[in-house]
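Q: How would the structure tokens look for this protein?
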Amino acid sequence: MPIDSVQLASIPTESRNPRTTNIDSLPTEEMLALMNREDAAVITAVEAEVPRIAAVLDALVPRIVGGGRLFYIGAGTSGRLGVLDASECPPTFSVSPTLVQGLIAGGDSALRKAAEKIEDSPELGAKDLEAAGFAEGDTLVGIAASGRTPYVLGAIAWARSIGALTVGFSCVPDSPVSKAAELQITPVPGPEVLTGSTRMKAGTATKLVLNMITTGLMIKTGLTYSNLMVNVQPTNEKLVDRAERIIMEIAEVNHDTATGLLAEAGNVKVAVVMQKLGLSVDGAVAKLQHAGGRLREALETE
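A: Here is the predicted structure in token form.
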């Protein structure tokens, strides 16, 4: 379908920002201060969408607990941000790399080299999602700052056709992407500092929301304890130190004891349960398994 340039120019992500028309003539510090003031609008825009983000999370959690997965799909900046958020989940929370997956138009090579033409094909969006093994029990978040990317619309339509849950993320009210999906998240940070550069305010809004979705998911599925990342993988010196400090905090032990517990247990949660409940490694593992891997439940149940 041909682009209506008049209609496209009227949407918030493409509109000219009247506050930044002289940005190219400002001294460096004033230019940066102007950018910063514009970025402040992103926080307000995302805050307004918290109820919708909560609705998405509440629908997502039981599907994940039931064995489903979360997929992001997008083109350009939107796709890159989805891949970034997905790729950070395994090292941060020790989850399988298949639990949260990011797909970008043009494949992984498009992470470094733009493949903008592909975003015009709804058929490729559907094809890529199907090729990734997306199934009825999974959840799709289609990301398109402009709210009209055909690649994303095609993926959403295919996901709905097989009965999966779909979420439309855009930065434009009443966009085709939001209307195509069952649930919607639509922060509207307004015109960009540079006209049409959705890698800026819209990109920042996208990053914030995706972080909220996956972090909220990990919290709600028991992969944290309080505000501590107890599923951290102690795979390098920094992460070993972090794991030991978490054990010290929860188990209320000194550093040497935490070091010994981590060495014996191999992970934070087992180490904490061993210390707090006076169990062996095997006993702590069994306790956690009975609690579904949730540290708080393991510590609070007999």
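The longest strand covers residues 70-74.

The two ends are 62 Å apart (CA to CA).

Upvote if useful.
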